[in-house]
């Protein structure tokens, strides 16, 4: 596995997809910084992981990803603890258009904070091999156009556009950091809790009920499926790739350049 002996920072790593990613990394002999805003769950998750996978292989940092200083402090602690830093996984996110300003802060600003810090300084300087990777967790709702979740979809569309830009040749040739983007479909996490009450207003809540009935026709995929697919993708990933993961299956998404549309 590519992740073996690599040092990885996972945001939102104390629950959901993030925690499943952390477990897969530890199973494959990586070292991990769990960066999460939850001081309620983070330390307990760390304790549980140390019991299962051994001590000295993961650390917990309390991080609000929208705060650049907190994010950088976690990267510094990762390097201090493990000596290297090879992979950043921008997983932290919320799905709640009723608090859309905070949604933008976390889903978009948080990921941008991580990418800038990692690409401009930490990964080029502290990677253990020639290959360093940033993984951005977007959503297939950033590719589609669901009318019920306009702000959430906008944050994920913007993250896709941002990923496309920072993975361009001019950036890769300078920094030699691979950027790949995952677009999971509906996944069984806390993001879906009280899903139909997370619209901009009551009208959008009604649209969410309709969306749930029409769009989510089967049980959501397990977060473990997303994590395991990511491990396989990292084994042979190339800069600029976009992957959709739905119903436990992955397929590459081709996002074309403007001249190709013309």
Describe this structure in words.
The chain has 262 residues and is an alpha/beta fold. Helices cover 46% and strands 17% of the residues. An eight-stranded mixed beta sheet has the order 3-2-1-4-5-6-7-8, with helices on both faces. Strand 7 and strand 8 form a beta hairpin. Helix 1 packs across helix 8 and helix 3 packs parallel to helix 4. The radius of gyration is 18 Å and the shape is globular. The termini are far apart.
List the helices and strands and how they pair.
Blueprint: E1 7-11, H1 16-27, E2 31-36, H2 42-53, E3 58-62, H3 68-82, E4 87-90, H4 100-126, E5 132-137, H5 150-166, H6 169-175, E6 177-184, H7 202-215, H8 223-235, E7 242-246, E8 249-253, H9 258-261
Parallel strand pairs: 1-2, 1-4, 2-3, 4-5, 5-6, 6-7
Antiparallel strand pairs: 7-8
Helix pairs in contact: 1-8, 3-4, 4-5
């Amino acid at each position: 596995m590519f992740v073996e002996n690599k040092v990885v920072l996972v945001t939102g790593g104390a629950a959901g997809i993030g925690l499943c990613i952390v477990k897969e990394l530890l199973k494959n002999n990586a070292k991990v910084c769990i960066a999460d805003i939850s001081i309620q769950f983070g330390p307990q998750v760390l304790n549980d992981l140390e019991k299962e996978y051994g001590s000295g292989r993961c650390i917990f940092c309390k991080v609000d990803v929208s705060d650049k200083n907190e994010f950088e402090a976690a990267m510094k602690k990762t390097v201090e603890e493990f000596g290297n830093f090879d992979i950043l996984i921008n997983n932290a996110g919320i799905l709640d258009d009723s608090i859309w300003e905070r949604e933008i802060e976390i889903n978009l600003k948080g990921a941008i904070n991580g990418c800038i810090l990692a690409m401009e300084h930490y990964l080029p300087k502290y990677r253990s091999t020639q290959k360093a990777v940033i993984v951005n967790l977007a959503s297939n709702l950033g590719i589609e156009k669901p009318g019920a979740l306009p702000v959430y979809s906008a944050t994920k569309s913007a993250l896709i556009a941002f990923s496309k830009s920072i993975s361009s040749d001019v950036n890769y040739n300078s920094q030699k950091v691979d950027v790949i983007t995952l677009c999971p479909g509906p996944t069984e996490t806390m993001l879906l809790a009280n899903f139909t009450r997370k619209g901009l207003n009551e009208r959008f809540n009604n649209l969410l009920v309709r969306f749930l009935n029409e769009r989510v026709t089967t049980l959501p995929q397990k977060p473990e499926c997303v994590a395991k697919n990511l491990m396989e993708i990292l084994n042979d990933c190339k800069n600029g790739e976009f992957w959709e993961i739905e119903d436990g299956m992955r397929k590459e998404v081709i996002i074309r350049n403007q001249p190709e549309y013309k």
